[in-house]
Each structure stands twice: as structure tokens, then as C-alpha cells.
Design a protein that fits this description.
alpha/beta, 5-stranded parallel sheet, 214 residues, two-stranded antiparallel ribbon
């Protein structure tokens, strides 16, 4: 079966998170429309994301292995194994959904830590004197970035949105060509505002799924 990797980046429970509420509705609709996919989920507030110590790498974005890895202590070996596991899990997917709130015109820090882990030479990218680029263009892959924000984003704030721009660019670098955005704008200060924003985003789910290249 094909796989959709559903990545959440919010410490809030799903029932009080706008991004995760819309994300759940999205993946539920996606699997109904695409029964040949299975869903694998990762919560970046619960998953262990290693700090990238220099001793874990033998080169740029290339984790140690073999004899060099055996020289590490047991905890450090586990950290290297976790880095490789996260990168391989990411590379094994055919589609991606990221549900995340906008924080400080970007996203919560765990998402950047995760990206740094999965950018691994020989798994998702190749970095060498001969070549620099992504390895995930080997098959058709598609990504959807679901972002909630308290304000209603205008075209002016969209130009300052470092979150969606960064993720789209880094995915493109890895070779993931198809990228869709679903915004949950204007969650505001009241439950009524939040419910309205969630309802509006929910209405757009079918069109976003239709626009994915699978």
C-alpha cells in the first residue's frame, strides 16, 4: 500500500487545536477517497527528536556508521539510530500532511528539529562534491501544509510567512514537487471565531485533496 505520513506539531490535545482538528478531518476524508493509502502518524511533541551532536556525523548531513558508530556510547548509538529511523520513515511515504500553528511568522521549534533530522545524505538528500540535491523525486510525492493562525492572513502577511515558504522550499529541495496549503485563518479570541475558521477550512478539504498529485 501507499503511505500518507501525518505530522502534527502542537502540544495541545486535538479537540482544542484548530490545526489538528482540521488535520484529522483532512486525513479522514483522504483515506475515504484514497483507500489504497495507509496513514502513519507522528506527533513531534511526543516523538524523541535528537539534538544533532557533531559526533553523530561523519560528514555533512551524513550519520556515522560502522566502526565510527561502534565507538560511541550506547545512548549516542540510540540517538544515531533515531535520526536514521526518522529519515527512513519520511522517505518511505508517498504523501505528507503537516498540521501546525503559525508561531512568530513561522512554526514551533520541533518541526525545524525534525527537518534537520530527516535531511540525511543517502536517504532524503545527496550532499557531495559532485552533487547536491534531493533523492525523493524518484516517484510522485505530494504534500499538504495545514496552518492555523489567529489573524485572517492578508497577502501582506503571506509574504512574511516564513513557515509555509520554508517548508515548501525544503520539500522541493528533497524532490517533493507537489505542494498544497490549507489555512485555518482567523481563529481569533473566542470559540465562535475558532469554530468559524475550522468550518471554513473544512469546506476546502475536498478541493485540496483533488489538487494533490498521487
Amino acid at each position: 500500500m501507499k503511505k500518507l505520513l501525518y505530522i502534527t506539531v502542537n502540544s495541545k490535545p486535538e479537540e482544542i487545536s484548530a490545526s489538528k482538528t482540521v488535520g484529522r478531518r483532512f486525513v479522514n476524508k483522504f483515506i475515504v477517497k484514497n483507500p489504497d493509502f495507509e496513514i502513519e502518524e507522528i506527533d513531534l511533541y511526543k516523538e524523541h527528536l535528537p539534538k544533532l551532536e557533531y559526533k553523530y556525523f561523519k560528514g555533512r548531513n551524513c550519520a556515522v556508521g560502522g566502526e565510527a558508530k561502534e565507538k560511541l556510547n550506547e545512548q549516542d548509538k540510540k540517538e544515531v539510530d533515531q535520526i536514521i529511523k526518522l529519515a527512513q520513515q519520511f522517505a518511505s511515504a508517498d504523501a505528507y500532511v503537516i498540521a501546525v500553528p503559525m508561531w512568530s511568522l513561522s512554526f514551533p521549534a520541533p518541526l525545524k528539529e525534525y527537518i534537520d533530522c530527516i535531511m540525511q545524505h543517502g536517504i532524503t538528500i545527496e550532499i557531495s562534491p559532485e552533487k547536491m540535491g534531493g533523492l525523493l523525486g524518484d516517484k510522485k510525492r505530494s504534500a499538504v501544509y495545514i496552518q492555523s493562525s489567529g489573524a485572517k492572513l492578508t497577502w501582506i502577511t503571506h509574504t512574511m510567512d516564513k513557515g509555509v515558504n520554508y517548508i515548501q522550499n525544503i520539500f522541493k529541495f528533497m524532490g517533493i514537487k507537489y505542494f498544497e496549503e490549507l489555512t485555518v485563518d482567523g481563529t481569533g479570541f473566542t470559540q465562535e471565531e475558532t469554530d468559524k475558521a475550522i468550518a471554513k477550512a473544512t469546506e476546502e478539504i475536498d478541493d485540496v485533496i483533488k489538487g494533490m498529485r498521487l
